[in-house]
Amino acid sequence: MTDKQLKSNINAFNAKxxxxxxxxxxxxxxxxxxxxxxxxxxxxxxxxxxxxxPFRSPIRNMAMGEDHIVVVDIEGNVYCAESGYHxxxxxxxxxxxxxxxxxxxxxxxxxxxxxxxVLDDEGHVFGFGQxxxxxxxxxxxxxxxxxxxxxxxxxxxxxxxxxxxxxxCEDGVYYWPFYRQNAFLxxxx
Length: 189
Hints:
This protein is 7% helix and 46% strand. The chain is built from one helix and 16 strands. The longest helix has 14 residues, at 3-16.
């Protein structure tokens, strides 16, 4: 693709999608949200191959790992779309979207490479997905197929990257790296 073609494609994209509220990218694709539709680029095609995934309600928050996308709508419902083998909730078809049940509304999601943390409206943190490097504490299962509540004080923010997690809680910051060890607390000042 020439620079002129790329510029033309970007201009056409921006003309069509003017109300983007969220976006993220990984090594395989980019995704963005416009109202209650999540759009995902195809991993083997170019920028113009964009696939819509509609939701019933507008999207509040979304995150993406290497092989999965997790979405929270404004009602606090959680949905997962992914390519296969790590989660019980979805089929092996790309863009198959399934709901993940929680008792309380979810306000934030964050994805590592192959795992996910979610934060509910009362500050509880749940984790699921791959756990081969200790991404989900308090369990030795290599795959955590259903969300488990983590033994962490009331949380305000969650963040994942690769196989690492960081959670901001009422008593400080919890961080656990990609290798198996107990989470440690960085006390507040």
